[in-house]
């Protein structure tokens, strides 16, 4: 309601005497742009706010000249753009800008129609160079693998610094305003590659010129940019020789011609990131198959201009020479190439034979969370409607199902309660078992910004001291697998001390008394004893939560990948219900979805027990609905095997054939040795992937699929947001989009799957699934998105439970009583260390995508993190070689000694085939949904060699030293004796 | 039991593919563009009619007017190479402003005859003579050059040869050199 009231408010401002309608608080620049009134500006960016550095937006107010970027609409605001002094001041500003920035547009990589310096100079009709341009006494910084900084072109607008400090909040960039020639610095003076820069690329994205450029653009953006600088320089000098006579006019005409030509050559296609669940969308700039840059815009509903290293720079895999481009058929001890007809005929025939011989439940399908919703839908439809089995699952089994279970038990919908904007609005964010800064970096940046600038408090609970823990207002480091205990103790404390929202509970939640009784064992003292947290820290967490108006709970694999992960997820949701933190802005439960479409893969039915839209396969009514919808005679009645139980079913001889799509099961399923052994037992196995994966080694047929940029479709992000991705380029070689492969196979198996485009699949889903009733490609066009549930009229749901109607028949939420049980994976005298594991920022999961490119320059080797105290105890140091052995297997790794882990806790990243941690994980799994307990591993460590090189490259950001500042410090610029406020002429325009 | 087959037993042809346009792709694109933009049609039409159009062009070039035009074009280009671009710009700006002034409605109204006293007043009009002085200076240089050329050269083909270095050295860039001089004068803040 608050949002609605705000959008309805209006006021009138006057510009040069003309009344304009505006929204109170609306930035003046945005208001003028809406009314098509041009006020020049360069440093202002809608997502960064006023920086006040460029001095090109001066307007006259009743109090004299003011920078327009600092003004916001309010009733009675009157400004003038026309007076001579305002115009002179603006021209003085732009003259200073081009004294710092050499305009050589036609040979510049940024001359693509969106160069803001070029466009501002052109739009202001600047006739020519007033102050001479002068080069700076600094070399170009070419050290970084992904971008280049050119001080000679930098206008010191401060956007990059603001983005780094206050949007990404990585706090690497600063400007030294006191130098003779001020400049942007990395870690106060390092070269970019050796700094704390996390390569998020946001500085490059917001740079208004070519001072910061993606390396992939260099020399490739335009026909003239490929010239080497020893040709560009004399040509530029020649043009500059003529320019004082001709002015900018004719030269700008030439550069505009060049820019127009580039538009014909460079395609810009909106797509959605294929890595984590944040759902960043952006334009991908390509020339043919060459990816020139990823350019997010402020229109991205989940990310705006933000990205992380993977979304911005992690696309080398698309053109990798390891991509599968022809179908393969096993022949003896090798594979041979085949054409699609032969391969798909073989698949159809063999699937049919296995079904006829052993029944439909002898086959199983694994859908991919990397694939689109439409592809997930076809996978489960192939399993259910064509083969006749519910043996279909996706990798949410490995990660998200316990979180979803916690929400199913308590509030009803298995999705995040609200949007990223809700997380930003919260007073307290409780983060449990989530390494958000590395696994969901763009959401982490929103949280870090809210903490840095809006007083948001962060309570972080994790066995590992990661970045969010370092930044936390309160960091809890409990013993592994004991989160449920302290969460229940906090909840009991809240109830006992009057912090429970009794009005909310009485009106909207069932089962309070029973739940309250279940909390009786969870005293603070008991929790401190079990978790090894101090009583004071547990009480402090409870007090911070209890006093807060709005609390969000955020959790991830550090909660779910445990034997009792579903229960711990439930405990978080119970806590939020006790404090009334559902249904309001800035509240709710937010399990962080790990893959780009792990939410959608489940939403669209690739789970062993549900149809699309979470209708149970065991519900006769739902089954009849889908049977009629798909036009088949029958559908299987019982839930099928899940990803994890499929392997045991192979072992028991129940499963004879598997069809695995885009899932590296041989590496990512727990107890990998056991998994591979059982793949070898199958009668028939199909792997559909973009790479010849470790899983593909066991296949009988390997089908080359297309990654996200080679097809159309939709993804659902962690906010339940459905977004459309457009095809950026044609599939490589003979590869095909997964939906096209599945549709072809469906036809070969006798079903009329004549889908010509994924939109037709989505239309079918919308027709049959109430949750997606109003979803259509038209409503998802461009940057538009919809958050489910989506009503038939297209109304979506950015925030669940706003009307306090929970997703149960009676609209009431439920408390779910819990008890604590310890992990079955015991630490004992032999296996005396606890091994934790997970992703790192640079790589995605097992590394099949990110391992195929330049990200390896930043981090390639996998390692084991060892605490300083354990290192002393065992006589190891960074670079030592050790063997880790669990009760299942062993791996060898190099040591990295770090305070991120403590005591006898270890941590191993996932991103490599060598040292694969799943050789150590076991079959123990969440008792409710069988998610492997990846985070519960007892190991022993043997030292193989003490001396060795560090596994962490010197140029990794973890070696950098951040320099946090509150803002870019423009006052320091103004305080310089050689700064003269426009319209006064500058004495040293080339300096700043 | 199926054994794992390692990637080294996968035929190389099944992996990777062409990821960047080669010369053939660029040529195909060029051909496609030339066709879609009707450039091929234009060129084909021109080539098919080449004998006729060649005859026409040759005839025109051979005519007295054609020869003179070609020679004059050459002289013009050679002479322009001697004129500093700033001077040419100033003259052309002045000419443009003069043409604009002459085209205005008031300029078309007939001036009343000044009479003897009027002429006398004009002869004492300091401002008028001040404004005419550059024109007179230019006129003197112009007639002087005409005389010198007539004295030293029998004909246009061997006319005064420009100094190859002349006009090559442009004045150094200065603050304000690119802006409208009038605007600069009126804008003391920027000086």
UniProtKB/TrEMBL annotation, chain A:
Stretches assigned to the 4Fe-4S Mo/W bis-MGD-type domain: 266-322
UniProt keywords, alphabetically: 2Fe-2S, 4Fe-4S, Iron, Iron-sulfur, Metal-binding, Oxidoreductase, Repeat
Pfam families assigned: Fer2_4, Fer4_7, Molybdop_Fe4S4, Molybdopterin, Molydop_binding, NADH-G_4Fe-4S_3
UniProt signal peptide: none
4Fe-4S ferredoxin-type domain mapped to chain residues: 145-172, 188-217
Domain 2Fe-2S ferredoxin-type intervals: 9-85
Keyword Phosphoprotein found: no
Residue span(s) of domain 4Fe-4S His(Cys)3-ligated-type: 85-125
Family: In the C-terminal section; belongs to the prokaryotic molybdopterin-containing oxidoreductase family. Belongs to the complex I 75 kDa subunit family.
The protein's name: Formate dehydrogenase subunit alpha
Species for this entry: Modicisalibacter tunisiensis
Gene for this chain: fdhF
From TrEMBL, chain B:
Record's compositionally biased regions (Basic and acidic residues): 180-191
Annotated region (Disordered), positions in chain: 146-191
Name of the molecule in the record: DUF1641 domain-containing protein
Organism of this sequence: Modicisalibacter tunisiensis
Organism placement in taxonomy: Bacteria, Pseudomonadati, Pseudomonadota, Gammaproteobacteria, Oceanospirillales
């Amino acid at each position: 309601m608050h949002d609605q009231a705000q959008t309805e408010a209006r006021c009138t401002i006057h510009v040069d005497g003309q009344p304009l309608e505006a929204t109170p608080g609306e930035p003046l620049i945005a208001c003028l742009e809406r009314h098509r009134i041009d006020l020049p500006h360069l440093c202002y960016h809608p997502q960064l706010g006023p920086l006040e550095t460029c001095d090109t937006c001066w307007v006259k107010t009743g109090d004299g000249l003011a920078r327009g970027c600092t003004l916001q609409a309010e009733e009675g605001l009157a400004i003038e753009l026309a007076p001579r002094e305002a115009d002179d001041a603006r021209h003085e500003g732009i003259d200073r800008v081009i004294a710092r920035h050499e305009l050589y547009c036609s040979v510049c990589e940024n001359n693509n129609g969106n160069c803001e310096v070029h466009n501002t100079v052109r739009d202001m009709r600047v006739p020519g160079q007033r102050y001479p341009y002068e080069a700076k006494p600094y070399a170009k910084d070419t050290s970084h693998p992904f971008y280049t900084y050119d001080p000679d072109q930098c206008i010191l607008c401060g956007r990059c610094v603001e983005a780094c400090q206050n949007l990404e909040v990585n706090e690497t960039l600063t400007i030294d305003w006191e130098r003779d020639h001020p400049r942007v610095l990395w870690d106060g003076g390092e070269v970019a590659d050796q700094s704390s820069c996390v390569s998020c690329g946001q500085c490059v994205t917001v740079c208004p010129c070519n001072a910061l450029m993606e390396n992939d653009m260099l020399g490739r953006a335009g026909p003239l940019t490929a010239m080497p600088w020893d040709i560009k320089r004399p040509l530029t000098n020649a043009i500059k020789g003529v320019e004082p006579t001709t002015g900018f006019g004719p030269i700008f005409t030439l550069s505009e011609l060049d820019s127009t030509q580039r538009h014909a050559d460079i395609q810009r296609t909106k797509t959605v990131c294929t890595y984590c669940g944040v759902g960043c969308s952006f334009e991908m700039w390509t020339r043919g198959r060459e990816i020139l840059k990823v350019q997010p815009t402020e229109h991205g509903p989940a990310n705006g201009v933000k990205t992380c290293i993977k979304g911005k720079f992690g696309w080398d895999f698309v053109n990798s020479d390891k991509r599968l481009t022809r179908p393969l058929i096993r022949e003896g001890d090798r594979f041979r190439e085949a054409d699609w007809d032969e391969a798909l005929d073989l698949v159809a025939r063999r699937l049919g034979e296995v079904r006829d011989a052993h029944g439909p439940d002898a086959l199983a399908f694994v859908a991919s969370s990397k694939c689109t919703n439409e592809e997930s839908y076809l996978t489960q439809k192939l399993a259910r409607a064509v083969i006749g089995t519910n043996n279909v699952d996706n990798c949410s089994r490995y990660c998200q199902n316990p979180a979803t279970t916690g929400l199913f038990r308590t509030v009803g919908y298995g999705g995040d309660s609200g949007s990223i904007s809700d997380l930003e609005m919260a007073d307290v964010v409780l983060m449990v078992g989530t390494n958000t800064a590395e696994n969901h970096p763009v959401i982490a940046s929103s949280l870090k910004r809210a903490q840095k600038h809006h007083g948001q408090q962060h309570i972080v609970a994790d066995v590992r001291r990661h970045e969010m823990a370092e930044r936390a207002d309160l960091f809890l480091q409990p013993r592994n697998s004991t989160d449920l205990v302290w969460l229940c103790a906090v909840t009991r404390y809240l109830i006992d001390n009057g912090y429970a929202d009794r009005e909310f509970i009485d009106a909207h939640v069932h089962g309070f008394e029973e739940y309250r009784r279940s909390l009786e064992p969870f005293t603070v003292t008991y929790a401190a004893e079990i978790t090894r947290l101090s009583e004071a820290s547990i009480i402090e967490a409870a007090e911070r939560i209890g006093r807060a108006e709005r609390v969000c709970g955020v959790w991830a694999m550090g909660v779910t990948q445990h034997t009792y992960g579903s229960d711990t997820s439930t405990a978080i949701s119970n806590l939020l219900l006790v404090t009334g933190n559902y249904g309001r802005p800035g509240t709710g439960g937010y399990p962080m979805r790990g893959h780009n479409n792990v939410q959608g893969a489940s939403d669209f039915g690739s789970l062993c027990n549900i149809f699309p839209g979470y209708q149970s396969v065991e519900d006769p009514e739902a089954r009849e609905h889908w049977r009629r919808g798909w036009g088949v005679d029958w559908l299987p009645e019982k839930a099928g095997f899940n990803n994890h139980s499929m392997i045991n079913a192979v072992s028991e001889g129940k499963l004879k054939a598997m069809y695995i799509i885009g899932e590296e099961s041989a590496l990512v399923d727990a107890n990998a040795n056991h998994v591979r052994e059982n793949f070898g037992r199958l009668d028939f196995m199909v792997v559909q992937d973009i790479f010849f994966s470790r899983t593909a080694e066991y296949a009988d047929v390997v089908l080359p699929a297309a990654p996200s940029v080679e097809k159309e479709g939709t993804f659902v992000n962690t906010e339940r947001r459905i977004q459309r991705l457009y095809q950026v380029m044609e599939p490589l070689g003979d590869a095909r989009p997964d939906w096209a492969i599945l549709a072809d196979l469906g036809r070969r198996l006798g079903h009329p799957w004549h889908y010509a485009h994924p939109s037709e699949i989505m239309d079918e889903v919308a027709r049959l699934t109430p949750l997606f009733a109003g979803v259509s490609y038209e409503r998802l066009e461009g940057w538009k998105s919809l958050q489910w549930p989506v009503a038939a009229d297209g109304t979506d749901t950015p925030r669940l439970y706003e009307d306090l109607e929970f997703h149960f028949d009676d609209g009431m939420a439920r408390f779910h009583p819990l008890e604590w049980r310890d992990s079955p994976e015991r630490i004992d005298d032999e296996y005396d260390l606890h091994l934790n594991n997970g992703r790192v920022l640079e790589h995605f999961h097992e590394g099949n995508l990110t391992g195929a490119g330049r990200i390896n320059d930043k981090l390639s080797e996998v390692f084991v993190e060892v605490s300083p105290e354990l290192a002393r105890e065992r006589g190891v140091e960074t670079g030592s070689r050790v063997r880790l052995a669990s009760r299942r297997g062993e791996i060898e790794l190099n040591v990295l000694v770090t305070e991120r882990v403590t005591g006898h806790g270890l941590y191993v990243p996932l991103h490599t085939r060598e040292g694969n941690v799943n050789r150590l994980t076991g079959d123990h799994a969440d008792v409710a949904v069988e998610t492997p307990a990846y985070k519960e591993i007892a190991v022993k460590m043997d030292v193989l060699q003490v001396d060795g090189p560090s596994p962490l490259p010197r140029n990794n950001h973890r070696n950098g030293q951040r320099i946090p500042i509150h803002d870019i410090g423009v006052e320091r610029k103004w305080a310089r004796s050689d700064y003269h406020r426009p319209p006064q002429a500058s004495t040293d325009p080339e300096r700043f | 039991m199926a054994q794992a087959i390692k990637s080294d037993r996968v035929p190389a042809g099944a992996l990777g593919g062409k990821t960047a346009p080669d010369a053939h792709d660029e040529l195909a694109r060029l051909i496609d563009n030339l066709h879609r933009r009707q450039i091929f049609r234009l060129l084909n039409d021109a080539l098919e009619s080449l004998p006729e159009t060649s005859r026409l062009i040759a005839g025109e070039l051979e005519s007295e007017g054609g020869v003179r035009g070609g020679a004059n074009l050459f002289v013009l280009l050679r002479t322009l190479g001697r004129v500093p671009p700033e001077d040419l710009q100033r003259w052309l700006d002045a000419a443009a402003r003069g043409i604009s002034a002459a085209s205005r409605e008031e300029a078309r109204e007939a001036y009343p005859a000044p009479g003897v006293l009027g002429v006398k007043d004009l002869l004492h009009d300091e401002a008028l003579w001040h404004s005419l002085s550059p024109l007179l200076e230019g006129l003197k240089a112009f007639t002087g050059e005409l005389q010198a050329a007539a004295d030293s050269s029998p004909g246009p083909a061997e006319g005064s040869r420009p100094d190859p270095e002349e006009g090559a050295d442009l004045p150094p860039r200065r603050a304000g050199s690119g802006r409208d001089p009038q605007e600069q004068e009126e804008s003391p803040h920027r000086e």
